[in-house]
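Progress report, Aim 2. The chain analyzed during this reporting quarter is listed below.
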Amino acid sequence: LGTLGSTTGFGAAKPGGLFGSASTATASATQPQTTTLPTLQEVIQNSDNLVRSLTAPDLYGDGRDALVAKLNQLLAACGVGNGFFKNDQQPVTYNIDGPFHRFKAVGYNRRSEYEDSDGIVSIMMCVPFDQLSSSTQRQKLIDALNVILGNNTNVRARLEAIRPMPDNTTTEVLIYVNEKGKGRVSSKQLSAYFKQPAQAAQLKSQLCVSDVVPRYSMDAARLKIFLETPPTGFDAELWKQAVKDNPDPERLVPYPIRGFEQLRKRQDLQNAEGKLAERAIEELRRRVVEVRNDITKYSTQNSIHSIAVDSGEEQLESRLEALDAALDAPNQIKSRVSNLMAILRDKSDALKTASDGEAIVLKDEEVTQIRKYLSRCQQALESIVSVVRSNKSDVSVIVSSIE
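Predicted structure tokens for the chain:
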């Protein structure tokens, strides 16, 4: 971090950028937190007081001290309360990290699939998942992160995943940052930047972020130390046996569980993961159905175009062509109707005058010829209607297949 020039890095031109000055960024990323460790004498004294509170309290000097010892043992087993053992001494505080706490077990957590170079950082946002479900809302989140990153066009935030938490009021967002020309920023660097006071205040006020955690798997050296060091309050043999019983050492690591609250939280997280898996499976099932429908549609179209025309379709085509020829042939229905329309249009006045005069008298022979002609027209029309009706369904099938 300290070797970056003034023209590179997250908001390098601005104070308090992701890299900022070399001294500030390096201090934020590498300076260890100062913690006060108890001295050996304090450890021995606390252990002695703990044992005395459970075995030999000296409060009354009679049989009531034995009752107090049993009560202290119960409190220590539950990991709650204070144990009094002497009038002039402060009571011993019992908690779930104590060696006598009984409600504890060892579970197994999946190791992270990310490396430090992947740059994945988890930010816990105190907002429901629904407020981050749409693409517009997620784009606003990315824009806000880019502003916090110094609004540098060479440094852009990206979303890796978004998942709801069991309480339905918190959402975990996995992000990473790309720096132009250099690739992804490491998880440690990005986490250290977000934990600087100015950036932490922006995350909290603008995005309701409650925690920032880098997501990367432990290296071999740290994993070895973790497996060889029993957690506080756990027996060394119990922890060693848990490490030995690991069903999948490549993907799982043992993890201490203390108290019913941690067990319930763990169960809620497992249920949430199960729901996410169900949601992903449902989405895959929906996509499979869509693909299956597309394949069926394409197969149907392919089979329609690849099948040869059968005799029934050839007969239908011949009948339709004959019908079209009969309609368009000279001196047939279409031509005669056109002639009649032309006569009505051109001689409408003469016909009107003739209709106002004397009535037209037709001979019996002429009436018979007209009746025969109209009968033939009626039969032809009925034949056309019959053909159209009989072939309507076939035409519909052909049209739908072509479309």
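The longest helix spans residues 259-306. The chain has a mean pLDDT of 81. These observations will guide the mutagenesis work planned for the next reporting period.
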